[in-house]
């Protein structure tokens, strides 16, 4: 993973939760877990097929993915990357258009 992406990611990732009882296994580092998540997302493999070379197991990477998803890390990172690229003039905003509106679906319809 490029150092530049890692530096941006560190700005949006929440602090790891503390274990009030202490102890337990050492938590895998965020950088190695992020690399595992990126591998799964780009390779098309399943969490269970994650190669051991990444360090964390597939279930560990998936738990952290879910934890970061709940914390909206991906949306924050996406915005941060766009801001960085925009500040450098590397995004052609003239090609961006909003052509739809997202609306929450009603539940319990007839």
UniProtKB/TrEMBL annotation:
Pfam families: DUF4096
Signal peptide span: none
Record-annotated Insertion element IS402-like domain positions: 1-78
InterPro entries: IS402-like_dom, Transposase_6_like
Protein name as annotated: Transposase
Organism: Nocardiopsis algeriensis
Lineage: Bacteria, Bacillati, Actinomycetota, Actinomycetes, Streptosporangiales
């Amino acid at each position: 993973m490029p150092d530049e992406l890692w530096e941006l990611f560190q700005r949006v990732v929440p602090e790891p939760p503390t274990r009030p009882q202490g102890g337990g296994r050492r938590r895998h580092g965020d950088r190695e877990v992020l690399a595992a998540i990126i591998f799964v997302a780009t390779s098309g493999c399943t969490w269970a097929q994650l190669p051991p070379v990444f360090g964390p197991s597939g279930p560990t990477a998936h738990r952290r993915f879910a934890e970061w998803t709940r914390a909206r890390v991906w949306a924050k990172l996406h915005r941060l990357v766009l801001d960085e690229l925009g500040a450098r003039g590397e995004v052609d905003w003239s090609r961006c258009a909003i052509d739809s509106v997202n609306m929450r679906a009603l539940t319990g319809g007839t």
